[in-house]
Hints:
By secondary structure, the chain is an all-alpha fold. It contains 19 helices and two strands. The protein has a domain at 311-471.
Amino acid sequence: MGKKGKFKPRAGADQRQGSQAKGKKHNPFEIHINRVKHDVMGRKSKTDRGLPGVSRAKAMKKREKTLLQEYKVRHKSNVFLDRRIGENNAHMDPEQKMALRLAAEKRRQFGKSEGDEEIDVKREKNVTQNKKVKDTQKKEMMEAAKKEIPYTFEVPQDYEAFWALLENHSPQEVGVILERMITCNHPSLGGKNKDKCDDVFAYILQTLHILTDEDGDSPLLDVSPFMYVDQLVSPLYTITQVSPVNSAKALLQVIEEKYEDCSKTKFKKYPLASTFVFLKIAGLLFPASDYIHPVMTPVMVFLCQLLGQARISTCRDITAALFTAHLLHEYLSLSKRFVPELTNTMNGLLFMAVRSQDKTQLPLTPPFKCVGPTASLLVLETPVTRFSETKLVFEDLNNRERQIDDDFRINAFCKAVKLLKLLSNCWIELPSIRAIMTPTKTLLQAMTLENYTDNVKKLVEELLSVFESLPSEGNALVREERKPTAIHMFEPAIEKIIDGVKKRHGTKEYLEKQKLIHKLKREKKGARKAVRGDTAFLARQQLQETLQSDADRKRKVGQIMSGLQMQEGDFKKMKKKK
């Protein structure tokens, strides 16, 4: 017999046990082997086999923790927040929590000092006083409301009825009437209110025409009709916000009519205030900085045509020209679009202020004339010692009887100089700004300012200093010399060959783009797969809930029916005993 020794396991057995402990065994029927289209020797592939069952189980657990929890609280909007002291602190003992809560309750009951009590008394007094003041204010408002205009208005069927609503009312009351009319017939209330608001928009445009006409009427006697214009802008803006398309069509139709009226005279004269009011309101209702706009583009063309063709011979013409120029500058201040009619008109006004016997050598463009009575409309013959600049009044656009005096000459000259300064700052980024302002600089240097006041001289000096600070002109365009044709060189097409990698042709940017497109497609595919899985998971969950509710209902119905049968049996027994 051999010696009995201790059993020593083989090294291979230890390795097998270690590998069994480390690696988990999988059911061979759950392993899915992916087919390889082209098998390459020596290439290691990580996707040659997979475990769809394990992956599906992991996805189900993940959805139960995330998607299922959201599905359960989908109809719940309230959240319970536990604000008890120490409840959210896991390291605090229940005894410490109770002690802190008891101390806080005692502080709440007995923590008020005498100063706090006095503050509370003062607060109560202030509250009572405020209540009394509010009650009195409410009574006064209710009494005033009885005497005020009504709060509800229906949209009239014709313009005569609309004008009758505005008669015998002040400008502020007219604004209140229109505001309440739009509020009572707002499109958000449904029905045909949008058509009613469009009618109100047309009525207001007609009212503006009547108010600003040369022989315009006023709703209230002894009140200028121009006082009502500002009160009509806010209702127009409100209706434009709710019905922009119809509002644009209505305003554009009015502007086209005014344009046709000016075309009949070939734009030889500036129109009246009844035309300028719509050109001004268009910029308040619609954006003027758009490159192309269905309303503002025709408006700007209208203004440019007035500056380029209308002649200046009276005080009203000068006022209209300055109003048109300021309005056009307001519309192009954001887009900084170059409009040569602006500088030409301002240069024409400066030319009218130059006092010289021979003015034919100075720069001037039509419609201005270098000779004749209109060439010296703004020349100061006598010195002026005092002058205060005034604003242009919109009513002066209809004043044909006003004569040109020295105050008007200086005022118009100052307006032109200031507008030229604004235009220089607006177009300073243009490469040809110095060439654009050269005629203006020549006219200012040709003027004699001895009859003007010191503040006017200062304005001219500031404008000349702005011209000096403008960027210098660029060099003239020169035709580029023809380059000699280079000899065609042939370079070898060297390509890097890597075994096992698919060869792709193209530039680096193209290959990078294709790589990103491939990643995007892969992510989309994964996202679609995840959405399909989530949809199927929710469908299964809904089916389980439906089956569970059906089973509960069936069980409850069975209980009810069994109870009814027992009651019926007991009733029959009692009936037999009787």
